[in-house]
Amino acid sequence: MLSELSDEEVLAIKPEMRIRQYAKREVVLHKGGSGDGLLFLLSGSLQVIDVTEDGRAIGLRMLVPGDFFGEIALINSSTRSASVVAMTDVLVAFLPAPVAMNLFSHSPSVARQMLRHLAQKIQRDSEFRALLSINNTAKRIYAYIVLMQKKNPDGTVVENLPTHQDIANMINTSRETVTRALLTLVQQGIVQKEPHRLLIKDPDALQKLVQGD
Domains plus CATH for the chain? Predict the structure, then answer.
């Protein structure tokens, strides 16, 4: 979001940034907490979670380095709508609310980036709700992979692949079911598992599994 700032603008906000470290499984943001700033993930991975009335933790999405979060409570002057938990050791930069709001108001590039981010967030959340409506659990897992995949110079991949348990939490199934579904894809030569990521060797075949009867 800050990539288009001028050198002068970067120098102005740099002293306001606070770098924080969190250990794996530590809570970075608590649901119901104050929207006191905007946060940027510098390293590691985070998961946004909500807790149901019966106490179950539901994963909403993963965050990777370069992502920012906490913007909704900041813009709405409301409390945090979900918790954020460290899935690995992480480094996070915290920008206090007054500084962040000043950026939104006075930097056209930051305002554009925020609008683009919010539009993508709405689209992604809509796609994720559609995914959760799929009754067949295997198809739901395949649809999750399609939703998370991105094209890069190495091919089509899912970077920073969550653990099987984290995927299960996000799409309302069991870890064992996720493991079986991924094993099926590997055996069929559709995907290849690599450290912390999934290489999609045959995107068309994966899409057919999602759409198949």
Answer: 7-121 (2.60.120.10), 134-211 (1.10.10.10)
